[in-house]
Amino acid sequence: MDPRHLVQLATILEKGSITQASKHLHLTQPTLTHNMQTLEMQAGGTLFERSRHGVRSTPLGEMFAREGRAISRRLQEVAEVTARHRHGIHRQLRIGTGPLVGAALLGDVVRETLLRCPELALSVQSDRPHLLVEQLIDGRHDLVIAPSWLERPPPGIERLPLIDDVLGVFCGATHPLAAQGALKNADDLRWISLGSTSPFDQEVREMLRSVGVPRARVDLAVMGEAFMLLDILSQGQHLAVLSRFALRQLAPRFALVEMATPGAAKPRPIYVWCRSEALEDRATAQVTAVVQEVAARQLARIHPALGQAVHHRAAPAKGSDGAGLNGENV
């Protein structure tokens, strides 16, 4: 089976037609059609169905296309390695991070890493935490900084406790509740980004019920993007449940206010995730140490009593350790 045919199948399904795929791939339509006939013969089944609206994948075709997309990603990674090598960069470390924690933490992490390790190049991707962990499993990241909703890491994945973070409720300084600084008569108020497709969603709703908000009117979700969320929140029309660690770093830039919430703060610890074999890698260990140091320094600055809440461990966390509550914008 020719791997190029799998890539071509993935492109056909992405573009929605053989015509568009042939233009994108710089192949003639007869050549592409012949390649798909060959692939279907090798697969022993139909890979997609044609209609006047384009092509639609069959279950078998989707499985083959998934492999084609993986091959395309690998080819792109090889091209990036080649480009970096031409510019004298021989090692790259890929970091995935939740958008808010990334906005609060990664600026200092990147600066200090490149000062200490000038031979190292970094790539940083922001995404929703549960997707980042899936991408780590797929080999698309070397380190991930994100909370956890799992009792224990997946096989072959380690997570190192980083910050004993907690959730807070935040709004813009011009919000009607900002002056009183507490959640009162909040049933009819508007909320942003409670992570309606998140594995953290139920715990967030339980938290709101515990502070007197049985029903939250969620009319806007901003997932995987920090600046847009904070800019909208600063306009004073919404409230949001977000990481206290990140927001205490970022709130002054956006004139945000934290609401007082009765009872104990809800834990949502943040971890550094990596593949098990990466624990022995020198570059991964160096960057992990920088992440820990930066987090400790930032915690000590925003709240000295929380400075001890950053973990400096060489061994991964084991068993249940307090899964997080909200992660779509962490």
TrEMBL record:
Record CDD domains: PBP2_LTTR_substrate (cd05466)
Compositional bias (Gly residues): 321-330
UniProt entry keywords in alphabetical sequence: DNA-binding, Transcription, Transcription regulation
Protein name: LysR family transcriptional regulator
Family listed: Belongs to the LysR transcriptional regulatory family.
Alphabetized Pfam families for the sequence: HTH_1, LysR_substrate
Domain HTH lysR-type: from-to ranges: 1-58
Residue segments, region Disordered: 311-330
GO molecular function, a single term: transcription cis-regulatory region binding
Gene3D superfamilies registered for this protein in UniProt: Periplasmic binding protein-like II (3.40.190.10), Winged helix-like DNA-binding domain superfamily/Winged helix DNA-binding domain (1.10.10.10)
